[in-house]
Please model this.
Amino acid sequence: LSDGPLKGKHILVTSGPTHEPIDPVRYIANRSSGAQGTAIGAALAALGADVTFVTGPADVLPPQGVDVIKVQTAAQMLDAVQSAPAADAAVFAAAVADWRVANAGDSKIKKDGSGLPTLEFAENPDILATVSQMTVGRPKLVVGFAAETDDVIANATAKRLRKGCDWIVANDVSPNTGIMGGKENAVTLISDAGAENWPRMGKEAVATALAKRIAEALA
Ligand code: C5P
Model:
């Protein structure tokens, strides 16, 4: 597609929310639009990368020029990530559901007068941590996201160490920032070199800046 600095590199991106079924017609979801992940996929492809783009049911269309794998659940997202070709870098921008419904029904739960249904939950796999801690075939650069409302840098720094990823892109999603669901983002890039505050800018500009940094790191 493009002859940029990421030519010949394979990069895996996860994006969007996941949907966790309650029964065949109902599900649990979150408010991720997929906008930031889609912008990152597009920015990486624009620099010449071969991008595998694993996306949950997002509001926005996937980027052009990437290999799109559509999934619904966190378990399917992990499967898709583990089945993808070996990657030089991986960017985990998806808002993966923390829990799935353990007692999801194969047929529609009926309002039949026998009382209210009770949902039981099971913890979903942590895809970012799983890939970060791979002993064979781990991408050279693993990038996670941290959406926080308090103590953004401290929490994101701890998250980086706990999950074992190389970089965390941290942002403050407090309601007064207008970032969640908005067009702009103000992020801090956390690596072993410390925390670097980026100015507030459009999500496309964040994606372009991040893609350039990834190209430098893989060069
Ligand atoms: O722990 P938390 O959900 O805040 O971590 C956010 C980061 O971890 C994001 O990069 C997200 O894509 C990733 N994640 C994941 N699998 C999960 C939960 C989070 O890949 N089950």
The mean pLDDT is 95. The two ends are 19 Å apart (CA to CA).
